[in-house]
Amino acid sequence: MKINEELCIGCKQCVPYCPVGCIATKGGKVYINHDECVDCGVCKRANVCPKDAIYMPAECYEYPRAIRMQFSDPGIQHPNLRAWGRGTEEAKTNDVTAKFKRGEYGLLLEFGRPGTGTRLSEIEKVTLAMRGMGIPIIKDNPLYGLLEPDISGKFKPEYVNEKVLSAILELVITEDKLEETLNKLFPIFKSLNTVVSVGLVSRFDDNAELPVVKKLKKLGIEVRPNAKINVGLGRPLID
Ligand code: SF4
Ligand code: SF4
């Protein structure tokens, strides 16, 4: 996103709307730090500019930059990748898709939200570590298509410095790898120049219990269980 300097009157009405704080003022002028901007479109959609000076220049639609708006603006689709938005909704409908089987956990790592955004280079520190442990990255996810086709966990060089508002990395781990995986991840999180929210997807056992909650508590991790029931989608996995 950019500001047309000839139209802008420096009223600063747009400044508080930027979720990553990249609209700045200098010498009485208001400008957008183009390298920090994630092209989310919030400043324009807020419709507060009295001069209609905020615009999306053509270069923001060109790759590799184009992925910024695809991850950051919920109204924009990824035309070349495998899914919409920042992650996939299947994680929330596991009762229908069975993406995560018995004996497995889904690990959903959300980078960049709230209010900081993230470079893909920060996410790469995690993808490299996870691939180094042999942990698969889910393919039906918009991040997957930005990775090198080998299984190294490296992003393609043209994308690695791109910045997005947030992105969700989806992994599958076997139950026995939980402690080892978290022990690997937490020190990496501390070194990142962004924030990470960790979601763990677990199926109920035959006694309608979630043993993973106790396991996590033993590891000193406080959890906030959050369930979703998809009424109306049927129970195709009942067998
Ligand atoms: S497009 Fe989004 S990130 Fe860029 S200046 Fe506007 S609000 Fe900030
Ligand atoms: S709202 Fe419009 S006129 Fe006011 S500072 Fe922002 S871009 Fe300039």
Automatic annotation (TrEMBL):
<dbReference type="InterPro" id="IPR017900">
    <property type="entry name" value="4Fe4S_Fe_S_CS"/>
</dbReference>
<dbReference type="InterPro" id="IPR050572">
    <property type="entry name" value="Fe-S_Ferredoxin"/>
</dbReference>
<feature type="domain" description="4Fe-4S ferredoxin-type">
    <location>
        <begin position="28"/>
        <end position="59"/>
    </location>
</feature>
<keyword id="KW-0004">4Fe-4S</keyword>
<dbReference type="Pfam" id="PF00037">
    <property type="entry name" value="Fer4"/>
</dbReference>
<dbReference type="GO" id="GO:0046872">
    <property type="term" value="F:metal ion binding"/>
</dbReference>
<dbReference type="InterPro" id="IPR017896">
    <property type="entry name" value="4Fe4S_Fe-S-bd"/>
</dbReference>
<protein>
    <recommendedName>
        <fullName>4Fe-4S ferredoxin-type domain-containing protein</fullName>
    </recommendedName>
</protein>
<feature type="domain" description="4Fe-4S ferredoxin-type">
    <location>
        <begin position="1"/>
        <end position="27"/>
    </location>
</feature>
<keyword id="KW-0479">Metal-binding</keyword>
<dbReference type="GO" id="GO:0051539">
    <property type="term" value="F:4 iron, 4 sulfur cluster binding"/>
</dbReference>
<keyword id="KW-0408">Iron</keyword>
<keyword id="KW-0411">Iron-sulfur</keyword>
